[in-house]
Known about the structure:
The chain has helices at about 25-35, 40-50, 65-95, 95-110, 130-150, 170-210, 235-240, 300-310, 340-345, 350-355, 370-375, 440-450, 455-465, 480, 490, 500-525, 535-545, and strands at about 160, 165, 250, 265, 270-275, 330-340, 385-390, 395-405, 410-420, 555-560, 565. It is of the alpha+beta class. Mean pLDDT is about 80; it is low at about 1-15, about 120-135, about 150-160, about 165-170, about 550-575 and about 575-580.
Amino acid sequence: MNDYSGGPNQADQGPPLPHPEARDETTRLLSAAAHLSPRFCTLAIREFLTDPLRAVVPSPGVNDGAVLREAVAARARRRWRDGVLALLLIAFGLLSPTLLAGWIAVAILWSGFGLRRRHLDLVLRRRPGAGTYVGALIAFSLVAARGATALRPGGTTGSNPDLGDFSSDQPTQQVSGGVSIVIALLIGLVIAGVLITDRLLIWSLLTKSFRRGRFSATPKPGEWLRTMGSGSAAGRLLQQRSAIPRGNTVVYLDENPFVGSGTPSATWSIAIPLEAADQPNGNGATPQPPKRPPTAFPLLDLYDHIGGYLSELRRSLPALSPSYRLSELREFETLFVPAVDLVTHFGGPAASLVLPRPDQPPLSRIDPQYVKQVAEQPIEWLRYYRGFQVEAWDRDLVVSVFLHVGADRDMLYFECTPCVLAPIYSGYWAIDLLSERTRLAPIMDAIGSTVVLPISIVGRLRHAFRPTKPAAPDKEYTADRYGARYSLRELVAQDTLTDYLKIRDVDRYLMLMQDRIFKATAEFLDARGISSKVFREKANIIQNNAYNNFDQRNSNFSGSMFGTLNVNHNNPAPAQPASA
Length: 580
């Protein structure tokens, strides 16, 4: 019988498990999604590769440069494919409007009754909206009317727009009509060939280059499908933005300043008086402390002391840190700047450090010495935070904590904002269900795409050729052009966190970091002769209540010393994949 009274027996634990290999699953899945989902591809390019003035923001949990390169390449491929398909379809309709009308009718029935199941889409497939069917019916009516106008009134035989007149006095029209049908059918075969070729290429790319364990963020020689569009406007802008180093400044547009880090949850704050600690006398009695203010301290000393305490988590054993994720705990400084106020104060000394010129994007990195100055002397619209971040579950889950401190000789204000970046939408994992051993599935997908082409061509062209110009004219410098709404990773994050183990890991990392923050702060105050009694009392209340009922979607946390904190989630809806 094992004796557990003395704690774990090292001899029974066996050899230590190897450090798991770090994998970047999120980058792999989103890179594949760029080739599968026109909607995701369009959203990514529109938000991040449209306006050269848009601020570059952190995007933890994903290599956004690699994903955007795949989006540019996928968009270039779709433009070539859908442009060719549109020209072929127009030629088909001109040669045989009657056949085109029948094709539209079959496409409506095929799509409406769900006769098509595309393997490349799997759970990504969405049924066409009502607008698609209305447009298809209008197109069918116009094409059918075109054919009806060619019928000879008052007779059973007439001038069919495709076959011509079968009466004996018009043999040339009969021959020309038959030739038109033959050419139209050949064009139809070419359309099917274009779609089959496209599907086979994408199937091969997904099952080889994007397979788990084979993916490389940098395209290998010969992977030309991943490098298309580099000379386009979006491709050139991507090259410019890739050269910008990620830094210490975030210019945000909406209410949430923590762009890139997910949803703020369970924010808490403490305000306590700074009083000298009690000094015991020689006989053990504890007299009242003298009424004198403690010595003021630099705020950066407190930040650094907390950072030192949290850095000890990097040495945690795997029993405390599953897969050694805490060994990669990251510490960083950030200035958060609202875009509206940046434009309002443009030309001032502080704004000029972030936005030196209005015709260039805000700087993502400014002088670190000025960052430290803002930590000691914050401005209302230029706020310093010290951040700590853990990426877990192959970068599919990101947990962050942001600290902000204010103090003078009499009071200390302490603010902590945990953020959770939820896993990506489950539909993006569908590519791992594809098999590279068969070519029948992509061919069947292409046949289905061929059948519904007349009612899908408008949507294809809209996604491929929709202009991606800035919302404001080039000479208007508004907050919308500078501020970031969300990161690429947040664009595809789930709006709920339902996996039990991931919820528990969020609790684990937040509680461990919070506990270190409390202990470090209390020790810092004690070391400077400042009473930590009130701080410890309020910290205990938060520790006991803050994370008891964690819920990523809609929760109430008793984490504020001023009552219950209602957590509102204002992140954009995740960009769920749509069919290619």
